[in-house]
Design goal:
Lipocalin
């Protein structure tokens, strides 16, 4: 009872200060705009640079918890409200203003940049960031791909929304490089990681409509520098049916 009372009072306070009920903010919200831009235009890096860096929010108004992921790092903060705004506050003084705009969540950073997010219908207990990643994989790489050039020519390749891949000779797991070292090493190029039995390597790729070209990654940096990956020889060319 002693724990339930403060939570109830917090929920009452938030409900009275904000224009929406606290429970309206609860759930997992994903950056659908980034997914749509990548799927429509082909360039994942450009889509994330334009519509990122935050790719997913998890909000729990009752517990006053707010968390976000950029595809590589996650941050946990405190959700609060005043008479005009909901605010997510994080260590280091970072804040984001949150508000509902119809069925969308609008997040405004301290520098004034705005991003919109849509509620994920079936996020369940998925780890932070996994719901965005699953939706991206479905939209960006879903369907059947046929190898038209490279080892295994003629085989059908399927990229699963949980990171499994079948049909490519060798690897059985993949991950698109969204942020962090994996993405920064590729510069302006799109990159992915392919592995089998927890041993793998990065590759550069280009998706042009229903054609996916995967290149060997060549490190152009000196030995004492941070790796910088550029496209090398073509490894595979895939076409989606």
């Amino acid at each position: 009872m002693r724990q339930a009372l403060p939570l109830a009072l917090a929920a009452l306070l938030l409900s009275g200060c904000a224009s929406h009920k606290p429970e309206d903010f609860n759930g997992t919200w994903i950056n659908q705009a980034a997914i749509d831009a990548a799927s429509n235009n082909g360039s994942l890096r450009q889509a994330l640079d334009t519509h990122g860096p935050v790719l997913e929010w998890k909000l729990d108004a009752t517990r006053q918890q707010a968390s976000f992921s950029n595809g590589f790092e996650a941050a946990d903060g405190r959700l609060s409200a005043d008479q005009k705004h909901w605010q997510a506050s994080f260590e280091g003084g970072q804040t984001e203003q949150l508000e509902l705009d119809g069925d969308e969540l609008k997040a405004t950073a301290a520098n004034g940049s705005e991003r919109t997010f849509v509620r994920a219908a079936q996020a369940g207990n998925a780890p932070l960031g996994a719901t965005f990643e699953k939706a991206l994989y479905q939209a960006y790489l879903g369907g059947d791909w046929k190898i038209i050039e490279g080892q295994g020519q003629g085989a059908t390749v399927r990229f699963g929304d949980t990171g499994n891949v079948t049909g490519l000779p060798g690897p059985d797991r993949f991950a698109l490089c969204l942020a962090g070292d994996c993405a920064s090493m590729g510069g302006n190029n799109d990159s992915l990681w392919l592995e089998r039995n927890q041993r793998g390597a990065p590759f550069i790729f280009k998706r042009d409509g229903n054609t996916l070209t995967i290149y060997q990654a060549v490190n152009t940096a000196n030995a004492d520098e941070i790796p910088q990956l550029s496209p090398g020889p073509r490894q595979w060319v895939l076409e989606r049916s």
